[in-house]
Amino acid sequence: MVHQMTVETIAAVATPFGEGAIALLRLSGAAALEVAGRVCRVAKGEFADLRARRLHRAKVLSPDGSVLDDVLVSVHRAPASYTGEDVVEITCHGGILVTRRVLDALLGAGARAAEPGEFTQRAFLNGKMDLTQAEAVMDLIGAQTDLALRAASEQLAGRLGQRVNGLRDDLLSLVAHVEAYIDFPDEDIDPDTGAALLARFDATLGALDALLATAGQGRILREGVRTVIYGEPNVGKSSLLNALVGHERAIVSETPGTTRDTVEECINLRGLPLRLIDTAGLRETADPVENAGIARTRDTLARADLALRLVDASQPPSLQVPAPPGAAVEILVLNKIDLGLAPTWTAHADPAVVRISCRTGEGLDALAAAVYERVTGGQLAWNPSAAAINARHQRCLARARESLSIARAALAAGTSPEFVALDLRAALDAVGEVVGGVDTEEILGKIFSTFCLGK
After folding, report:
1. Are 250 and 259 in contact, with CB atoms under 8 Å apart?
2. Of 16, 74, 239, 441, which has the maximum CB count within 10 A?
3. For residue range 27-57, what is the model confidence (pLDDT) as tens digits?
4. Which of 3.30.420.40, 3.30.70.100, 1.20.58.340, 3.40.50.300 is the CATH number of 226-376?
5. Chain-wide mean pLDDT for the chain?
6. Handedness of CA 398, 404, 405, 410 (dihedral sign)
7. Parts of the chain with a pLDDT under 70
8. Burial (Cβ within 10 Å: 0-12, 13-18, ≥19) of residue 26
């Protein structure tokens, strides 16, 4: 099937708009060399004869023949290019105006402005990568830590796609076996409806479960660990946020109720992205604005991955105990140890409790170690070598698992193989959506619309 978009030649600026040393513009399509040749004049020979994968000096001309810029041009001929089509890349000076003028010249010469993600979408449509690899492009661009970068790189290299395609092969084998028995019931084809076939179902279900178990890790790598700092007023929540971030991100005041809204900042903790969220102090108050902030604190806690319950260790515990964070992993943090510990906290022997001073910095390394251990030590299911799925993959694989479970139960119950085959087909289609084996325009449009221009 030839998609309409691949017929047109597209152009876009592939670097962020703004002032810089250089800017990169891309063209892709059957007429890429022809369009570029209309606006670029090379020193020797014709543009169409330029050697591929070499840098060539050229001048970009405006419609009236004047020189817009002195540039470098590289040609990548199909199919040996990122998109699988003829691609031309133009490196010009990085001014806002000159970049805009070069792009306008390309558009005036017959190219169309590219949509967000259209270059990568063409790479997918032309078989240069599967859908998991295409999604990994944006994960790679958006990676904020080394672990996130490594995970995106492995997915871009096809590791996740290989596992999913292995699942497709297993499901296809099961479908072929059941449907062969349906089509040729009188032939000498062993239906294998006993323990052997059920064992193959179970093995595939196990492989699905293994991938589904990486969903939490994938979300953390892409979005960060939602880490909520909460407690009563004046225990040092904003001071802790500032200490972990390394600068004055939140306002610190001795006046209770200063923080009325959540304050969020992302940090890199030993390769893990941590989304630190400072919240309003939890207490009883008649102030409607402060109450709104407290309500937001409770809502934020309900969606937390990790909760840092901060207390003033120089004071005895208050009767106003903060609300628990529900299912979130919690670390009790005793702050202000530089002022001395109240007797109640001195006797607190729980090794999971971390003692710190935001004023002096004492204990902050121990807190970082405790957070890392809680995230990677099993409570949030961590495996740094796993291929981590995203939310879209999770939905597809969950549907596949449901259909496969129904098919297995039907087979075990002796249900007609026609019904078993229907559910197996549904499972196969759901797994195919992960790598793009099922061509659904709505799915592709949604995925690639989140990409940046020029990619």
Report:
1. yes
2. 239
3. 999 999 999 999 999 988 889 899 999 999 9
4. 3.40.50.300
5. 84
6. positive
7. 1-6, 184-194, 247-262, 282-291, 293, 319-327, 346-351, 378-387, 438-443, 446
8. buried
